[in-house]
Amino acid sequence: MAYCGNIRQEGCGKLERREKYRLFLYVLLIGSITALFICWMILIWEKIPGAIHIRAGIRQDLDLNVPVSGKLYKAPAETEDGAIPVTGMNAAVDAREAKTLSVDLAEPLTLYAEDIETYTMDLKLFGLIPFKTVNVQVINDKTLIPAGIPIGIYVKTEGILVIATGDFTGDDGQAKEPVGHLLKEGDYILKVNGREVEGKAAFMRQIEESNGEELVLTILREDQEFDLKVRPERNQDGEYKLGIWIRDNAQGVGTLTYLDENNSFGALGHGINDMDTATLMNLKNGSLYTTEIVSITKGENGTPGELTGVIDYKESNKMGTIEANTVEGIFGELNESAASHITTQAMPIGLKQEVDLGPAQILCSVGGAPQLYDVKITSVHLDHDNINRGIELQITDKTLLETTGGIVQGMSGSPIIQDGKLIGAVTHVLVQDPTRGFGIFIENMLIQ
Q1: How far from 4 is each of 56, 130, 198, CA to CA, in Å?
Q2: pLDDT on residue 78
Q3: Domain 51-141 class in CATH
Q4: Predicted pLDDT of residue 208
């Protein structure tokens, strides 16, 4: 009897373990399916741009092949008559909602509008699950002159940028930290005692001549402006200090991307960030200067290369003024003399939905006049989280590879051209493989 009882207990134990194992497999299966579904949804999300630009008066195809559908209508702020005409097998007017069109992005779609307007596309996954809202902007067709010339860049910050804080040894031998936790890396000092800061040298002189009296600093931090009080203290040399490291300018070499009919320019394809804080620098003013490439450091796997240019900051070498420093690049106006030296022909822009995988070219100068070099577009991200990395490309031109090893620092802003259209600008190099890099769509540079 006891023996049979043991057999039954062993059998029950095996059955219980089997049930637990089966439950584990079910949970693993459900988890795997859920993970795959989420990954698939992310891929679908990235295939649908958050914003679509179409040219007024021109029919344009959109072939995303994704299982989403929804409604297309004029943006709420625009309540007057007319909806954007949509053609294609999947487009049908919704009779219940005036001026609203049904769209299905699983099928090719043709968009057409005559007026400059903004529309909204509300999309649902499988037509059921709210998924994404897309802004559709009708724009005038535009032509730009691709430049591809090297430029010297000099910018002054709006106020003084704090790049680090710390302590120092005072005249009594004790550690001093006057600003304590009051100031942070990335702060901008705009005013001292209500007066605008004139520059790094003038600010340092104010601190040294303060005689340890309390100062009121006006600070800009993440778009918030406020005042705080600090009291400079003496170091071992008897000089008054705050214990901060500051910067009020930046300079470097880049590439001019385009020029329009009004001599307005765009360059770099990304903003000028401070090298220490990695934050976008607040621009007070800036200038472009002529520069001559004097040496090239060839890029290697793990080590990016560089174009080294000589910049003479004389007024006679000034090419133009920088009026904006944004995530999408630097923008401003060239003077007539500089504009007259750009002789390339104007060409239409290519919108991001028109960019194809395959052959393209970049226009850049690695010594002498700008030249076209062959590249291959390897991937297109219509809705990349990083606006500066919508295009992935690879250098295929043997001459450029022999000269630079691929994409190097200083080539940021080099125009990317495909099928006779300006589609973007080079922005980054892949450090582990300098033959590969990224670019920004030209339309993103134009909406800054």
Answers
A1: 87, 60, 96
A2: 44
A3: mainly beta
A4: 92
Q: Which helix (H) or strand (E) holds 429?
A: strand 421-430
Global confidence as pTM: 0.83
DSSP 7: H
318 sits in which H/E element: strand 318-326
What residue spans define the domains of the chain? 1-47, 51-141, 167-242, 249-340, 345-446
- Tokens of residue 354, six digits: 């028109």
Contact assessment for residue 363 and residue 256, using Cβ atoms and an 8 Å cutoff: no
Pick the CATH number of 167-242 from 1.20.1730.10, 2.60.120.580, 2.30.42.10, 3.40.50.1380: 2.30.42.10
Tokens, residue 248:
């009020």
φ, ψ for residue 241, nearest 5 deg: -140, 160
> What's the pLDDT score for residue 5?
55
Residues designated as active site: 270, 397, 412
Tokens of 356: 């194809």
Where does 345-446 sit in CATH, by number? 2.40.10.10
Residues of the chain with pLDDT under 70: 1-14, 76-98, 448
Residue 26, pLDDT score:
86
